[in-house]
Amino acid sequence: MSNKVKEYIYINIGVVMVALGMYVFLMPSNLATGGANGLAIVLNYFIPILPVGVIMVFINIILFVIAFIVIGKGFGFKTIYASLAVSLLVYVFEKVFPMETSLTGDILLELIFGIVITGVGMGIVFNQNASTGGTDISAKILHKFFHINLGKAVFLSDIVITVFSAFAFGINIAMYAMLGVLLNSFVIDYIIDGLNLRKEVTIVSDHFDEIKTYIIETLDRSFTIYYGKGGYSNLDKKLITTVISKREFIRLRTFINELDSNAFVTVKNTHEVYGDGFSEL
């Protein structure tokens, strides 16, 4: 499967999660937690004849131009796809499954579930160098030029919309929305870090050749060899250092345990890896 196909599979998963979280949990409770969707919820209050999904399309069209000019064509095309897909799904949900009232009647519960679901979806989309549109685009610009974490950039972009929601729905709803924006920023950063998590593994073992062969032939990964001397044994040692995924680490750990239970292994979490076999720098 090509990388481009994988990108759009992940984007589609994220899009569905964002649309469901918005429509099922946030919109019925008027929780305008930023983004084109939050602004659309506020505008829908003043112009109820226009569905939220339609308003989102108009907002995103304006911001698409900015995405093409400032961020680049690659981000722009994927963002157009993702944001139009979210808007279309929300519009379809409005027509096919109309929700006049909130699902549970508990606004805090709606906020938590809505933010977690949409935040995970946005994190997945962001991780594919795309966005669900709206103020996500301005967040991406802040990230590109000022190197602000995407979650925090989303927070800065969305906080203005929650202020406007106070005029439409009252200060209580606006404060809940502001809490949602803050929670959303943490969820996005957590998801992006989790998706990019890799394990940096250093191994010292008398079964150097077998471990080396396993990493190359079974895991299809490379490694770096260091030469050292044991402080206690005073013997020359070969150290293997490799960077692998969480799943690959589980396989490697099982193999080493079966091969040499006395091996010395250290493991570090790393969230950014660039180069052959990983992300482009």
TrEMBL record:
<keyword id="KW-0812">Transmembrane</keyword>
<feature type="domain" description="DUF2179">
    <location>
        <begin position="221"/>
        <end position="275"/>
    </location>
</feature>
<dbReference type="InterPro" id="IPR019264">
    <property type="entry name" value="DUF2179"/>
</dbReference>
<dbReference type="InterPro" id="IPR003740">
    <property type="entry name" value="YitT"/>
</dbReference>
<feature type="transmembrane region" description="Helical">
    <location>
        <begin position="46"/>
        <end position="68"/>
    </location>
</feature>
<protein>
    <submittedName>
        <fullName>YitT family protein</fullName>
    </submittedName>
</protein>
<feature type="transmembrane region" description="Helical">
    <location>
        <begin position="146"/>
        <end position="167"/>
    </location>
</feature>
<keyword id="KW-1133">Transmembrane helix</keyword>
<dbReference type="GO" id="GO:0005886">
    <property type="term" value="C:plasma membrane"/>
</dbReference>
<feature type="transmembrane region" description="Helical">
    <location>
        <begin position="105"/>
        <end position="126"/>
    </location>
</feature>
<dbReference type="InterPro" id="IPR015867">
    <property type="entry name" value="N-reg_PII/ATP_PRibTrfase_C"/>
</dbReference>
<feature type="transmembrane region" description="Helical">
    <location>
        <begin position="7"/>
        <end position="26"/>
    </location>
</feature>
<dbReference type="Pfam" id="PF10035">
    <property type="entry name" value="DUF2179"/>
</dbReference>
<keyword id="KW-0472">Membrane</keyword>
<keyword id="KW-1003">Cell membrane</keyword>
<dbReference type="InterPro" id="IPR051461">
    <property type="entry name" value="UPF0750_membrane"/>
</dbReference>
<dbReference type="Pfam" id="PF02588">
    <property type="entry name" value="YitT_membrane"/>
</dbReference>
<feature type="transmembrane region" description="Helical">
    <location>
        <begin position="75"/>
        <end position="93"/>
    </location>
</feature>
